[in-house]
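Q: Can I see a sequence and its folded structure?
A: Here is a first one.
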Amino acid sequence: MSEKNQEPIEEELEINLLDFLNVILKRWKLIAKICFCIVFITAVYSLVKTPLYTAEVTVLPPSESGTGSISQLKSVAMQFGLVQGEGSLDSPLMYEKVLKSRELINRVVQRRYSSPENKGKETLIEIYELNEVVNPEERLYLAYKKLRGLMDISVDNESMSLTLSVDAHDPQLAADIANEMIEELDKINQEIRTSKAKSNKKFIEERVEDTKKSLRSAEEALKRFREKNRRIEDSPELLLQYGRLKREVELQQELFITLSQEYELAKIQEVKDTPQIYTLSEAKPPMEKSSPKRKRNVLISFFLSIFLGIFVVFLLEYKENKKEELNELDGFKIFSQDLHGFFRKFKRSFHGKGKRHH
């Protein structure tokens, strides 16, 4: 591009920039008023709004459940197609679903906590001021929705840990709710595992009985074979048949012993009552509120209000320019005058009819 062509472009940019600054400076008071009003409203809202405190608790689900003997059972049972299809109970995603379930949250909202307003203990239904709702089911549902909206769950796929965050208007209450939720999570987890252990015990018990019958049948078949064939050393076919029957008995014996051991372990697991969820960091009352963040809100509102003010003054400037352009056109002047005259005549005739009627 030549220097001659470049100079007009630079001059045009300077003119546009000056026009831009001129519009802002001409209406700077309006921008200042908009900015002051928005910042003032934001500051008042941040001061009036009840603060929220966030308590966090991090838990680590146990490793894949089962002992070495159970793994041994699975390896043996796979040969016979005896492995049950079952999902993992140790996935953080499973715990996330349980924490969000109505069953767990309904238990938590009905527990009693130290209310920030009262020294006595109250349920979350009372703390959330829902006790005036007549229908108990609706009251419980509203409390569930309230707590569900005040909690957040995040899962770390690398460490396989789960973090639960709970908001409340009181720091101690937030920590108590978070810890109670983990306690209920552990209880429900125990109930699920106990139910699973009962089902597992029943399954193994049935397999023990089936294996016992198969072992008895194999032993009887081997016994009858030995009774009918006293001398089998000289017959390759009889030796092969004898080997098959003997291996069947040994295989059934091995499976029966393994299943019997697992049956005893399943009975122990059924009555076992040990925590399965490991709490890495228990929820403690937070020292600082999580919201509202007054400084951040005021700062954001300040910058947004400036942009809004600039937008408004340019919109007003645009309307004024358009109005002046329309007034400068003869056609629009004539149309405006005719339209104004028509409404004046219509108004006079309307009032004249009204007077004659009276």
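Q: Show me another, different protein.
A: A second, unrelated one:
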Amino acid sequence: MTGAGDLLAPVFAVTGVAPSWRGVPYDPPGMGRTARHAASLLAAAAVAFVVAACGTQHVGVPKNSANYTADTAAAQLFNQRCGGCHTLSYAGTHGSGQNPRTYEAINGPNFNVRCERPAIRVLYAIENGGFSGAYMPQNIVVGQQAREIANFVAQYSGRQAPIQPGVTRCQNKQLSQLPLHGALNLSGSSSGS
């Protein structure tokens, strides 16, 4: 077995300087406990700030919306529960695949371009795991929250869809929002617009 001296002998032979096992010429004194703690807190705060700001987009519900408060709450809920798989700019999400060659199985529809009206259709998808039932979990939100998200998606989906001759724009289709309280009218129409 070779010792450390045997391994360093070639270095001495080439350079003529014996390797030093001592520290570097400037070895700063160690930080005190308080300074280490303060530096750790500062580093943690910096990392938290960077992570919080990295790749996020804020909810973009128009402030002049008649239901601004309810729509903003629904957008935030959509962002938390649905944003990993679906894209909807009003909720600040980018979960849909952008390139068909790199789609993943869990990439959901891009609601910026896909119209989802009436709202009962969205509620059906929430309750039943989408329309195929393959990847979307059933009842990812329930009750009033499910109705709020259904109304929000129906209201804001399809707004960036390309104009196509002979195809009715999403904004011109019947919205039929769901009542947030009380019995659900399964005929697809409800009070409120």
